[in-house]
Specification:
- The chain has 191 residues and is of the alpha+beta class.
- Helices cover 23% and strands 30% of the residues.
- It folds into two domains: 35 residues, no CATH class; 146 residues, tt1808, chain A, CATH 3.90.1570.
- It has five helices and 13 strands.
- A hairpin with a 5-residue loop joins strand 10 and strand 11.
- The N and C termini lie far apart (46 Å).
Length: 191
């Protein structure tokens, strides 16, 4: 950290601050950014996904975390809170607090008007630097649509999208199949 700008935080200062804070903050390059609250649709979609994944991951060497598991992208220094993250194998954490995951396998972001551009662009650029990340899933909250990025050969990401209520999202990295209609259960797009 440069001493020229004393308002910038080190990673240690951020973690100390964040662990005491009542609201969550993203961190990058010495700066923190408060994360906004979630809408009803956002919350329903996240919990639907968490429940669907939990039932399929039971008894397997993967675990899912919704909203409060911080992820660090070591290559870029980003600390963030995905809406849902799955880690397979032995989870690795930054320190003994066991609250900052280093090796996610799948990350889900539920899109909102204020974060969609960031989730698709800069945030995905950070996430793609995670060597363990196999799949990145963007879930719309204003229409039935899920976009799926799967790591192919090398640094290539393979894109697909589904929007038919009868469609099934297949996540090969964790061998899960999720009905699109189940992701959006109780979500009212007209409200």
């Amino acid at each position: 950290m440069s001493s020229a700008n004393p308002s910038l935080l080190t990673e240690c200062e951020y973690l100390d601050f964040e662990r005491k804070s009542e609201i969550r903050h993203e961190y990058i390059a010495g700066q923190i950014f408060a994360m906004s609250g979630a809408s009803r649709r956002h919350s329903l979609i996240t919990l639907n996904l968490a429940g669907l994944l939990w039932s399929q991951l039971r008894g397997r060497p993967c675990e899912a975390h919704a909203t409060d598991m911080r992820v660090k992208v070591s290559a870029t220094g980003l600390y963030t809170y995905p809406d849902l993250v799955v880690a397979c194998g032995e989870p690795r954490y930054e320190d003994t607090h066991i609250d900052t995951l280093l090796n996610p396998t799948v990350i889900f972001e539920v899109l909102s008007e204020s974060t969609e551009k960031y989730d698709r662009g800069e945030k995905f650029a950070h996430y793609s630097r995670l060597e363990t990340l196999r799949e990145y899933v963007l879930v719309s909250q204003d229409k039935m649509r899920v976009e799926h990025f799967r790591r192919g050969e090398g640094e290539e990401w393979v894109y697909s999208a589904i929007s038919d209520s009868n469609a099934v999202l297949h996540l090969p990295a964790i061998d899960c199949h999720i009905d699109l209609a189940a992701i959006y259960e109780k979500v009212d797009f007209a409200a």
